[in-house]
Amino acid sequence: MNTDRIPFPSFSSDPCSSFYQFLTTQRPELLPMTRWGMLPAQQGSNELSLSHHSPPWPQGTTVLAFTYQNGVLIAGDRRATEGFQIATNRMDKVFQTDAFSAMAIAGAAGPCVEMAKLFRIELEHYEKLDGKPLTCEGKANRLGDMVKANFPMVLQGLVVIPLFVGYDQKREIGRLFKYDITGGRYEDTEFHAVGSGGKDARLTLKEHFRKHLPEDKAVRVALRALFNAAEEDVGTGGPDLHRRIFPTVKLVDRHGVKNVEDTQLATICQELLSQQGES
User: Fold this and answer.
1) Based on CB atoms within 10 Å of each CB, which residue in 24, 77, 179, 212 is the most buried?
2) Is the pTM above the cut of 0.85?
3) Is 61 a catalytic residue?
4) Choosing from 61, 67, 204, 248, which is the catalytic residue?
């Protein structure tokens, strides 16, 4: 018998539109803050676990997002580090969360990935119960609630800082939301970048970002920002043409979420490397 299966009577007796809230009341041991060191929610305690040190989970990254002509672009490098060592160069940090939204993660890898997966289920759960998807604003608010609930883990060093983007079908524009560690949600109409290389990426975006960039130029600006961040930040991985490892870039517009293919990324990365060699 699968002990992780939630009994049907429990689910049907609490038809909450928030899957995250449902887990909080019915199965708190499945929540990330419980699995990563917090006491179960039903004990009514905010105490931290005995382990106060921050283990060497992979962290260090650069993720960014900005608006462009058709919607909004979101991108991130692929490197994860453990202290001064490279844990992997193939980690995905940008996730599609539903048909018209995506998020990128920065912080401790384990809790970051779990939050991204849980948020995707949260949006699916709401749509199945209510028969319609959340608004772009509603999605951003739900993610803010999850970041806020993660604050006790922040005190243990397990920081999760997401970027969220979505295409607002009512307003017909791409929208970008950033968060602080307490769950504060802020909308940015132009660009933002977070992570250990976020400052370097923002400097590049400040120089090259223009409103209403066409798609091809937007992808080029994103790769340039990630490339410059990798030059300055040890926690950010640059493109690896030999192993065919490139940043993850997604575009969100009125047609939905689209991945930029590696063939296009390879061409642009090669050009950027050539320009650097000539300078």
Assistant:
1) 77
2) no
3) yes
4) 61
